[in-house]
Every structure is written in structure tokens, then in C-alpha cells.
Amino acid sequence: MAGICIFLVALSWTCVSSAAQGTVRHYYIAAEDTLWDFAPSYPDNPMMGRPFNNSERIFVGGNGRDRIGHRYKKALYREYTDASFSSYKTRPQEWEHLGILGPVIRASVGDTIKVIFKNNTVDKTLTMHPHGLSYDKASEGSPYNDGTSGKDKLDDGVRPGETYTYTWDVPESAGPGPDDPDSIVWLYHSHTDEPADTNAGLIGTLIISRKDRAWPDGRPKDVDREFVTLFKIFDENASLYLRENMAAFAPEAEMDDEDFIESNLMHSMNGYVYDNLPGLVINQGEKVRWYVVALGTEVDLHSAHWHGNTVLSSGQRTDVIELMPASMKTVTMIADNPGEWMFHCHVDDHIKAGMMGRYIIRPGKTNH
Ligand SMILES: [Cu+2]
Questions:
Q1: What pLDDT sits at residue 368?
Q2: How far is CA 226 from the centre of its chain?
Q3: Looking at the annotation, which residues are catalytic?
């Protein structure tokens, strides 16, 4: 008994201690109706340096009648500076590449995250649900028959105009494991009608660092630069906004027309197709952490491939990592080889449909 008591006392002391030392990090995030452009370069395909050809235009060519094109109404997570939700938090240039993704929520082991979530959409009921972190039933962000009631149900669906605070703890079990690098990635997303919510665009990521290996703002100390990329075929046929998009952009479309359905499969990286993803710029010699995630259906089997440089993934060298729906992978690159390099999904159909971009390593050696 004495042993158990000592163990319990020790456990309880550890919990109090880490909570006392941890930081409470506040994020002000709203879900917003947004018009998203998967290919701002249209009608040009920057990957090939020419206009889109006919097979590419299936996915990006709207016609005002029975095809929606490259712009869709969606709902995205956007970050504000404070609880008044009056000013957007400026997204720094090094995070421009996030594109359709919500803000990166960052913390170190031992911290607590409080997300003040406001639903600014006109008529969608939405939530925020995190992977990996520790939460109670009032901060799970997902409605199902889980035996709860009262205030434990308020997180299940935040209605338009309402605000709700989610509290997520970051214990050791949410941080990097023994074979992980000093920071790892988790997904967060809306989970009211999960497939419809995520295809509408309500997806973001959390980055969690080892406590003793992070700067005070939570950034890992062992890398010069971080990138987050989401490989996802946004299925606009399954989005909360399908009918609105048809009414606005393709009033003559038939919902069961197979060519129309195909044209609404946006094979994107961070919501960009055919090399429209901006901002993946590195200085030669930098150590870069890539957080690569995926989400979707049985067709969202992706293989992320870097030309020109390799990465370390769980101690193994590769230039391709495999992704399944809800995969969350963290790899590290020493960016030694300067140039403009293709970064794309290696699945044949996905290449044809535009799941490709580039990253740029500027010459001029950075030494460590
Ligand atoms: Cu793919």
C-alpha cells in the first residue's frame, strides 16, 4: 500500500508541477464563409509554363452553366487578435503557404490551449475537434451518443453567431515520442458532420514541441524553418456548400452527372492545384521541418514526394512519405541542394489532376 501511496503522491506532484510551469495559450479562431480559389493563376498552369490544357481544365475550368470551376464557396478557420473578433491576425510571410488551412495552434508539453471559437458563418453549425491532445467531454467538439448532457453538450455544435471556448491540455502523451523529432503535428477540424465540414474547408493543424527543446513561443529550437502541407482531394460534391456553389456558379449542373462530379474533385495541397501553392522558400543549408497531413476518403491515399532533396522520417532516409486519411507525419530536411524543385503527390491520377507544387531553395550556404 505504501508503494502505491508514494506512486500516487509522486504522480500528483508531477501533474501539479507541470501545470504550474506550463503556459496557457489563447487562440481566437472564427469559422467564416469564404470564396476560395484553388487556382489563382487560371487560365495559366505555372507548373508547365503554359495555359491549362483540356484535360487539366476539367478540374479548373468553370463555364457559368454546368461546371463550377476553380472558385468555390467554403468555410475556413481564420485567426483574430482578441476576443472582440474585430481584427484578423496577420499571417506572416513564412506561413503564407498554409493557404486553405486554419491557423497553426502551437504549444509545448505541459501547456494548456484555450481556443475561443466563434462561428461567423451565416447558417452552418460547426465545431473544433483536436487530435492527440487531452480534453474532457465539454471540449471534444463532436456530437454523438456519448452519455453526456448539459454543459458537456455545448461543444457538440456551435451555432452561427455563437462563441464557445475549447480547453485542450498538452500532456506528455500529446508531445513527441522517443523516436520523434523535437516537434510533431496533429490535425484539428470541425466534427459536426465531419465529411461535409472538412470538405467545406474546416481543417487546421497543431504543432507540439518538447518542453525543454522549444522557445518560449513554442517553436522547436532544432530547426530553422517549418512548413505544413495538407494533401487532400477536396470533394466539393460532399461539401456543406454544394448547393450554394451550384446555384452561384453552375445553375444548369446535374448533381448526378459523373463529369460534373469529377470536375468537383479538387486534388490539392493546402487548397491549391497545379503549382499555385506559394511560399515554400528555404535558404540553402537550412534545417527544415515538414509537417505533412492528409484527410479525406478512400481515394486520399497520397505519396508526398520531394524532388532534389531527401528527408529523415523516423530515422529513415527517403524522398517519399505515405499518407492515408488523417495521417500526420513529421519529417526533417537538410536543404542542401539549391533550385526550384517539384513537390507533389506521386499517385498517377493525382498528378494528372494537379496535386503538385514546388519548393525553392535559394543558393548561399547557411552553416550550422
Ligand atoms: Cu495523391
A1: 55
A2: 13
A3: 345
Q: Give the Cβ contact number of residue 219 at 10 Å.
A: 17
Say how many Å lie between the CA of residue 124 and the centre of ligand 1: 29
Instruction: List all residues 6 or more positions away from 37 whose beta carbon is below 8 Å from its beta carbon.
Output: 70, 71
For residue 179, the CA-to-ligand 1 centroid distance in Å is: 27
Distance 230 CA to ligand 1 centre (A): 11
As to burial, measured by CB atoms within 10 angstroms (0-12 exposed, 13-18 middle, 19+ buried), residue 16 is exposed
- Residue 220: what residue type? P
Nearest alpha carbon to residue 351 among 233, 263, 227: 233
| DSSP annotation of 59 | H
Distance 354 CA to ligand 1 centre (A): 9
Q: Which three cell numbers stand for residue 354?
A: 494537379
For ligand 1, the distance from its centroid to the CA atom of residue 341, given in whole angstroms, is 18
| CB contact at 8 A, 366 and 286 | yes
CA of 249 to the centre of ligand 1 (A): 27
Pairing of strands 24-37, 112-119: parallel
Nearest CA-CA partner of 275 in 56, 92, 48, 72: 48
d(CA 306, CA 365): 20
25: helix, coil or strand?
Answer: strand
CA 288 centroid distance within chain: 18
State how far the Cα of 145 lies from the Cα of 69, in Å rounded to an integer.
Answer: 39
According to CATH, what is the number of the domain 19-362? 2.60.40.420
Q: Quickly tell me which residue has 466563434 as its cell.
A: 118
Residues of the chain with pLDDT below 70 are 1-20, 366-368
| DSSP β-ladder status, 112-119 and 163-169 | antiparallel
